[in-house]
Amino acid sequence: MGRTYDALDDGLATFLRAQHVFFVSTAPSNGGHVNLSPKGLDTFAVLDPHTVAYLDLTGSGVETIAHLRENGRITICFCAFDGAPRIVRLYGCGTAIEPGDAAFAALRSRFGRFDAVRSIIRVALTRIADSCDQGAVEYRRANNRASIDGLPGLRGDG
Predict the structure, then answer these.
(1) The CATH number of 3-135 is which of 3.40.50.2000, 2.30.110.10, 2.40.128.120, 3.40.50.720?
(2) Which tens digit of pLDDT belongs to each residue from 82-138?
(3) What is the average pLDDT value for the chain, to the nearest integer?
(4) SS3 letters for the chain?
(5) Where are the domains of the chain?
(6) Considering the entire predicted model, what is its pTM?
């Protein structure tokens, strides 16, 4: 069932790199819209066991960058579309690094060639969690009484 990790190990890093699509979610601190964006095309990199990054390509809006500038909160979600069911969520504090920033060139070299690169989003990980379908009822009983923020969750037995 689901686990949390202190760092990205080789197994997690391999899983993340193998996924063709991932999802990024951010939100402003006081109301507003939650932003959820699909990403992919080999734009993701594990920088070290506690840091990841992805290429931010020009899209329909600039919510992710705006939210990160306001509060830094970001979640990246990977789902296995092939093989055994698995979801990995990376929670952290993100920074948008623009082409004029000193760190941009070194990070940009970690990715393939893409047009329309707007920024690189670097994320310092604060929580790493995965989940799968095995033992779901027992897991819900033990772990779904409250959210990760301590808000009330399920009331029943599963």
Answers:
(1) 2.30.110.10
(2) 888 899 999 999 999 999 999 999 999 999 899 899 999 999 999 999 986 666 667
(3) 92
(4) CCEEECCCCHHHHHHHHHCCEEEEEECCCCCCCCEEEEEECCCEEEEECCEEEEEEECCCCCHHHHHHHHHCEEEEEEECCCCCCCEEEEEEEEEEECCCCCCHHHHHCCCCCCCCEEEEEEEEEEEEEEECCCCHHHHHHHHCCECCCCCECCCCCC
(5) 3-135
(6) 0.85
